Amino acid sequence: MKPIEVREELKKRNINIFTPDIFSRTFQISSSKTKYFLERQAKDGFLLRLKQGLYTLNTDLPSEEEIANALYKPSYISFEYALAYYGIIPEMPYTVTSATTKPTRTFTVHDKVFFYHSIKREAFTGYALIKNQDKSILIAESEKALVDYFYFVMLNRIPKNDRLIINVNKINKDKVFQYVSLYGNRSSKNVTDLLKTIL
Fold first, then answer.
1. Count of C-beta atoms within a 10 Å radius of residue 49
2. More confident site: 154 or 55
3. This protein's superkingdom (predicted)?
4. Domain ranges of the chain
5. Proportion of the chain in helix, strand, coil states, percent, rounded to 5
């Protein structure tokens, strides 16, 4: 297989992030040939290995939001990154922050840091699939991102950025306090008290 033919086929099928298994089924080749091709092309720079067993085209890099969704599943983008995405806070953070039900993890891809905060399963909701042109990303609703963020501030797991200016006009307060209840009674009261200082 020639790299240019591989790129054309992946683009035609709208496959921008893939595992060896997906690649093998797409091109109907053996796992051994797949392994050789992926390792060789990653070494030559045609492919980028995002992590072990996950690749993308170096010529057509996915957005950092798409990479965040693919690196660690299940997960959705939340916290400071989602708040900046919606324009609720003015500064886009360097780190792409996500919520997951798995253990906390950090990945670095092309010097970009992707951080995953572990949350309880009951709170793993309040996100949506947003489609923008040819990409789709899982991201928290603005209210859920705010609750996720301040819950971790309350736990002292992330520092509260006093320079953050929350645009409360973009927040549905009723929805915020509905999401707060997902974190349990004791946590809910503490987060509610914290949120009332800004909403």
1. 16
2. 55
3. Bacteria
4. 3-57, 64-196
5. 45, 20, 35
Least confident of 91-100, 135-144, 151-160, 180-189: 180-189
H-run or E-run covering 22:
helix 20-27
Neighbours of 110 (CB within 10 A): 10
Between CA 88 and CA 67 the distance in angstroms is: 23
- Tell me what pLDDT residue 170 has: 81
Q: What is the CATH number of domain 3-57?
A: 1.10.10
Placement of tokens 């690649």 in the chain? 23
pLDDT in tens, 157-178: 988 877 677 777 888 989 998 9
pTM over 0.90: yes
Q: How far apart are CA 186 and CA 165, in angstroms?
A: 27
Sign of the CA dihedral running 130, 154, 123, 99: positive
